[in-house]
Write a structure and sequence with these properties.
The protein is 2% helix and 41% strand. The protein has 472 residues and is mainly beta. The chain folds into four domains: 104 residues, Immunoglobulin-like; 135 residues, Immunoglobulins (Immunoglobulin-like), CATH 2.60.40.10; 102 residues, Immunoglobulin-like; 113 residues, Immunoglobulins (Immunoglobulin-like). A hairpin with a 3-residue loop joins strand 5 and strand 6.
Length: 472
């Protein structure tokens, strides 16, 4: 019975006598016969040039077959020495089966040891590592990894490939560490499994995985065919690891108002008031062989209304930024992780609103003048001006030339207008989102107003936007 799982892996070997070695220091051989045939005659099993008898044990195999098994004495197991096997009919002394082999060519090796899996620190990636199955033959094996979502056991496993060739370091904070799954490894590949790239490394980065999914992962080994050879061994027991969820699931948005600090905001279900939120950040690895920065915890956290959360931190200058939000809850699963892919500070700018410093009205022409929200970005800022009749919802939005600091609008006389301006970095280096609109100013364009000065005031409306034309 202990032989059966290993024997099934030799089903594709075209020999009458099937043999395997688990450690290259042992050897087991067997052959199968129909039960009636086995009962009608007796066979003897011999090996070596000088025929040496082996004590054969017999097992019932399946419904109508008999399996004869020889486990070789350890003193007769020698590497790189041809071994001649013979099965003789005891009645006629005729050879029924024979085979010549070497022990180093029939390896059937156990799965790798100490398999671990964890998040690799990048979107859709898990890092899997293991140790060789035999300590005396560390560099003699090929490995194959397969994985599938833990929630879909009926799905065939996918076979891992390792196109990156890069070894990530160990992040100090990760969504899930490896655990042994409840399902045991199977002896053969599931139907429909795509056999992919085989590798000699004792680690692999699984890529293009789904976010927020727990995966079951298995590894198997095989002699590499150089000095040692054989067949694929059994799959390991499954280990489990989880990819972090997408940052979009919690609306995670990060930006910098001043090119020094980063403010991240996200929202959470108000039905879970007892959750604990932590944000971590770091610079992603810059390439193969480089040391990873440790995750830093963001300390300046705040909680707003309607389940909104925010945290502000100052990242290391001159590098991209990765962000991870861990949300701990009082029920299972206790911690959910949300990962935002790396971004650069200069591409995530969200400035304060521009400041209107001069607003004048003369003969139906409104002149607006403002200061850029961040002087360092002055030459790379686009602006929009919008205006509407006071207490109206019909905004006219005008695009202003890049880096401009003033605009003149032709207004119809006989009404009071609200006007605002906003900015967006859109240059070759600095990029980002539109700022909030500036505080509204109210101007009087009545026919008899003549020259007038705008004043700050509340327009009190947020409405649809209608495109307008810039004054000539």
């Amino acid at each position: 019975p202990m032989l059966l799982p290993d024997a099934a892996l030799l089903a594709g070997v075209p020999e009458d006598i099937l043999c395997f070695s688990r450690s290259f220091e042992d050897l087991t051989c067997f052959w199968d016969e129909e039960e009636e045939e086995a009962a009608s005659r007796t066979c003897h099993f011999y090996y070596r040039d000088v025929l040496t008898a082996c004590a054969v044990s017999t097992w019932r195999h399946g419904a109508s077959r008999t399996r004869h098994v020889c486990v070789f004495p350890s003193q007769d197991v020698r590497l790189f020495t041809p071994l001649h096997l013979h099965v003789l009919n005891a009645t006629t002394n005729q050879t029924k089966y024979w085979r010549e082999l070497s022990v180093e060519a029939v390896g059937l090796i156990a799965p790798p040891a100490n398999i671990t899996a964890r998040w690799a620190g990048a979107a859709g990636q898990l890092y899997v590592s293991w140790q060789p199955p035999l300590v005396d033959y560390l560099n003699f094996f090929l490995y194959e990894v397969r994985h599938c979502p833990a929630s879909s056991p009926e799905m065939p496993f996918s076979t891992a490939q390792d196109p990156s060739g890069q070894r990530p370091g160990d992040p100090s904070i990760r969504p899930a560490s490896s655990t042994h799954a409840s399902t045991a490894g199977v002896a053969t590949a599931s139907p429909g499994v795509e056999q992919g790239l085989v590798q000699t490394n004792t680690w692999v980065v699984l890529q293009d995985l789904q976010p927020g999914v727990r995966y079951h992962i298995q590894v198997r080994s095989k002699p590499d065919g150089t000095s040692m050879d054989g067949v694929w061994g059994p799959w390991s027991q499954a280990v489990a690891a989880e990819t972090p969820h997408s940052s979009g699931d919690i609306g995670l948005y990060c930006s910098t108002p001043d090119l020094q600090h980063v403010r991240c905001e996200w929202s959470w279900d108000t039905a879970e008031p007892h959750s604990s939120h932590q944000l971590f950040y770091r610079a992603p690895p810059s390439g193969a062989g480089t040391r990873e920065d440790a995750w830093q915890r963001c300390e300046e956290a705040s909680v707003g209304a309607q389940g909104s959360h925010a945290c502000t931190f100052q990242p290391r200058a001159g590098s991209a930024i990765s962000v991870l939000v861990n949300i701990t809850r009082p029920h299972v699963p206790p911690t959910l992780s949300y990962f935002k892919e790396p971004f650069w500070l200069h591409q995530a700018v969200l400035t304060e609103a521009p400041q209107l410093v001069q607003v004048t009205m003369s003969q139906g022409r409104l002149s607006l003048q403002w200061l850029p929200p961040l002087e360092a970005l002055a030459e790379q800022l686009d602006y929009q001006v919008r205006y509407a009749v006071e207490n109206s919802h019909d905004w006219k939005v005008l695009q202003v030339p890049r880096a401009a600091r003033k605009e003149v609008l032709d207004l119809r006389p006989g009404a009071r207008y609200c006007a605002q301006v906003r900015a967006q970095p859109s240059g070759p280096w600095y990029q980002g989102s539109w700022s909030a609109w500036s505080k509204p100013v109210v101007v009087d364009a009545t026919a008899d107003a003549g020259k007038g000065q705008g004043r700050s005031g509340g327009c009190g409306h947020r409405s649809h936007t209608a495109k307008g034309r810039r004054a000539r």
